[in-house]
Amino acid sequence: MIAGSIAGMVEHMAMFPVDTIKTHMQAIGSCPIKSVSISHAFRSIIKTEGTAGLYRGIAAMGLGAGPAHAVYFSVYETCKKRFSGNNPNNSLAHAASGVCATVASDAVFTPMDMVKQRLQLGNNTVYRGVLDCVKRVFREEGIGAFYASYRTTVLMNAPFTAVHFATYEAAKKGLAEISPDSANDESLIVHATAGAVAGALAAVITTPLDVVKTQLQCQVSYLCYWF
Predict the structure, then answer these.
(1) Confidence of residue 157 (pLDDT cuts 50, 70, 90)
(2) How many angstroms separate the CA atoms of 25 and 33, rounded?
(3) Residue 4: exposure state from Cβ atoms within 10 A (0-12, 13-18, ≥19)
(4) Rounded distance, CA 213 to CA 136, Å?
């Protein structure tokens, strides 16, 4: 749980500016302009809010990512041991374990992810911070707004984690077979390479649902004037 929590917070907070740009690109589809480039989204954020705009909502990410990833990796490791039996290379067990981990962690992360995305898409006149966003959403839209995208998130993350962990474990095994002397199970390069391959493949498959999730979580009509 500790390792997963630290890994999740470092991962999400290090990549937060990229996540902000991605969120803006996904949300703009509800405006008259149906798509923008990465550079266009980046310039719009910098022009409107400066560099700080790339980090709006990072506090919500930190508050949600830690507990969610603690749940995620602890459930994954527990299920992997139970499902794998005597076969540590069972890809089906790895995929099923990832799905179980997703269902559990998304229940923890979805509310703060909604807050994070609304802060990313708004300027200081919309929400003053994490607490203000939580209070206003609860007062104006009710508790259901925090979980509006939960089913879509699970539908997105279940195949993502199934593909991710199955590919990750297979890639680790393949790298170890290619170079058994240097690519042991605890090698940093093995974890980094296998994780990059697995994450890229899973993202290609699930990005369309990620767009749906973003638009469910956010009221984005006030963004149109940015672009």
Answers:
(1) confident
(2) 11
(3) buried
(4) 20
206, 156 in Cβ contact below 8 A? Answer: yes
Amino acid code (one letter) for 147:
Y
Q: Residue 57 in contact with residue 119, Cβ under 8 Å?
A: yes
Q: What is the pTM of this model?
A: 0.72
The token duo for 53 is 């705009």
Spatial contact of 148 and 142, defined as CB atoms under 8 Å apart: no
- Mutual angle of helices 2-14 and 58-84, in 10-degree steps: 140
- In contact, 122 and 163? CB cutoff 8 Å: no
| Spatial distance between the Cα atoms of 87 and 105, rounded to a whole number of angstroms | 26
152 touches 115 (CB < 8 A) = no
Those residues with Cβ within 8 angstroms of residue 45's Cβ, 6 or more apart along the chain or in another chain: 20, 21, 24, 53, 54
pLDDT tens for each residue of 121-155: 875 667 888 999 999 999 998 999 899 889 888 88
Alpha-carbon distances, residue 94 vs 98, 203, 207 (angstroms):
6, 18, 21
Q: With 0-12 CB in 10 A as exposed, 13-18 as middle and 19+ as buried, what is 178?
A: exposed
